[in-house]
Design brief:
Length: about 525
């Protein structure tokens, strides 16, 4: 007869659990490499609960950010470094710092003025001038001011122990917090390490030295700078030589002068191409009767986004027409439509080319980062140098600012096409053109439409900036309102810009839906 107490399934499960526990302990030993029994015990406690489990790590509490940095937990090390640096600066200021230094500097400045007024008072008394009372009041006021500042300096100097105790309290709280969260943070990193062995493990000596040196240098510099302001000038003022900036300015100016002189034909060609598109759109939007333009916009909105959105578009167009913004709104749409169309015509093919060429995309990505992050007023300077002022320069400036999203999102959409779908199409005999037009582009279309939408919105955001270099339209009204503090005109023109953006957004987004 079989033993009723024996269950082979439970025995197998218990053996598997024991094997897993032993394997986990071995992984912990490999990961921490020091004080393994302590970390096994605490990691088991932390892993047994999904919530935060408080433990106490004495070494983490004592060495603070150095311990976290040496363990590779820089996301914890840097915030704790800031907190400890603030605490140590407070302690150093309270114990050794000259808290009344600023007040004494003000006193020294006022004493020079007081000495001058006393001399003027003595001269006025000697000559019998009628300004004796004026000088006397000035002397009395300055003397009283010095007395008040001196009392303030004494009060600041007396706060030294209090400041030091406050810093000590902050330091102790930070040390306790680091000791409590250290094992929990390290156990989370251990979980990452189990799935990705590229995550740093252990506590190498080189990392300990780097972490300790980095944090000691930063903390010491902060303590010296705030405790003894002005004693070491290099901590307060970056060491530089004015000739470096002057030389760089001359080099940049020489480069742009050379580019303007030698690139005249190229810039004239670009200006001519922009003029062709711009004149065509101005003919459509500005010269065409407003009834025709409004009807076409309403019809396009209805076909892409529905009847309700078409009604809203008609209301927005009516607002611009009734308040006298129609012609300027159409000029704005022509100008920014030119910039958006050219950005899209260049950006989508460029994104298609870069999507399957990682090296080329890695090359143009820093350029696009520069175009998006550099303030518009900065890259307007070379644009004016190359193209002068006026609408073509405004179009180029708008393209630089708003042309990158369509490239990025085209690349993102094409790279997001599942490889299994592409492989299936290839296996059925699809050539490269069919694969691009029937598989890649349709699947990437939502992302590409989002890029077109972002390019249009960023182009509209440049309305006011473009008006600074001669572009007409609604931005001119906003700029004039800023110059003369005309609140009403600025708000009404701003709403017109908003409504233009909303109409274009609904047309593009409606197509996506």
């Amino acid at each position: 007869m079989s033993d009723p107490q024996f269950n082979p399934l439970e025995d197998t499960q218990s053996e598997a659990a024991l094997a897993y526990a032993e394997e986990r302990r071995e992984n912990i030993r490999v990961f921490v490499r020091t004080n393994t029994a302590y970390y096994i015990r605490n990691f088991d406690r932390i892993g047994a609960s999904a919530r935060f489990t408080a433990t106490f790590n004495l070494f983490a509490g004592l060495f603070g950010p150095v311990w976290f940095g040496a363990r590779g937990l820089w996301a914890w090390a840097l915030p704790f470094l800031v907190i400890e640096a603030v605490a140590l600066v407070q302690i150093a200021r309270g114990l050794f710092g000259d808290l009344a230094a600023d007040a004494m500097a003000r006193i020294a400045s006022i004493e020079g003025t007081l000495e001058l007024r006393r001399k003027q008072l003595a001269a006025a008394i000697e000559s019998g001038s009628d300004k004796v009372d004026v000088y006397q009041r000035a002397v009395d006021s300055l003397a009283a001011n010095i007395g008040g500042i001196r009392a303030e300096a004494d009060a600041l100097a007396a706060q030294g122990p209090k400041i030091a105790l406050t810093g000590l309290g902050i330091l102790l709280v930070a040390k306790l917090a680091q000791a409590v969260v250290a094992n929990w943070a390290l156990e989370a990193r251990f979980s990452e390490w189990q799935s990705n062995r590229a995550v740093r493990s252990g506590m190498p000596v080189a990392h300990i030295v780097f972490s300790a040196g980095f944090m000691a240098a930063l903390t010491l510099a902060a303590m010296v700078h705030y405790s003894f302001p002005g004693k070491i000038s290099v901590l307060g003022t970056f060491p530089t030589d004015p000739s470096l900036r002057l030389g760089a300015i001359e080099w940049v100016e020489a480069f742009f002068n050379w580019a303007v002189l030698n690139g005249e034909a190229l810039f004239d060609t670009i200006t001519y191409a922009i003029r062709l598109v711009l004149d065509a759109l101005e003919l459509v939007f500005v010269s065409t009767p407003w009834v025709v333009v409004a009807a076409l916009i309403a019809l396009l909105t209805w076909l892409t986004a529905g009847v309700r959105t078409a009604i809203y578009s008609v209301a927005f167009l009516s607002y611009m027409g009734l308040l006298g913004f129609w012609e300027k709104a159409m000029t704005t749409l022509a100008l920014l439509g030119t910039a958006a169309c050219l950005s899209i015509l260049i950006g989508i093919p460029l994104g298609m080319f870069a999507a399957r060429r990682p090296r080329f995309y890695a090359f143009i990505q820093p350029i696009m980062d520069f175009m998006q992050t550099m303030p518009a007023f900065v890259f307007m300077i070379p644009v004016i140098a190359f193209f002068g002022t006026g609408k073509p320069a405004a179009v180029v400036t708008t393209m630089i600012f708003g042309g990158t999203p369509v490239v990025r999102l085209t690349v993102l959409g094409l790279r997001g096409v599942p490889e299994s779908v592409r492989e299936a199409a290839i296996s059925f005999g699809a050539n490269k053109w069919y694969l691009l037009t029937k598989v890649d582009l349709p699947l990437a279309a939502p992302s590409i439409r989002a890029g077109i939408n972002q390019t249009i919105m960023l182009s509209l955001a440049m309305v006011v900036v473009a008006s600074l270099i001669g572009a007409k339209g609604l931005g001119e009204d906003v700029l004039e309102a800023l110059q003369y503090a005309n609140v009403g005109q600025g708000i009404l023109a701003g709403f017109s810009i908003l409504f233009c953006a909303m109409i274009l957004d609904r047309i593009v987004q409606g197509g996506r839906r």
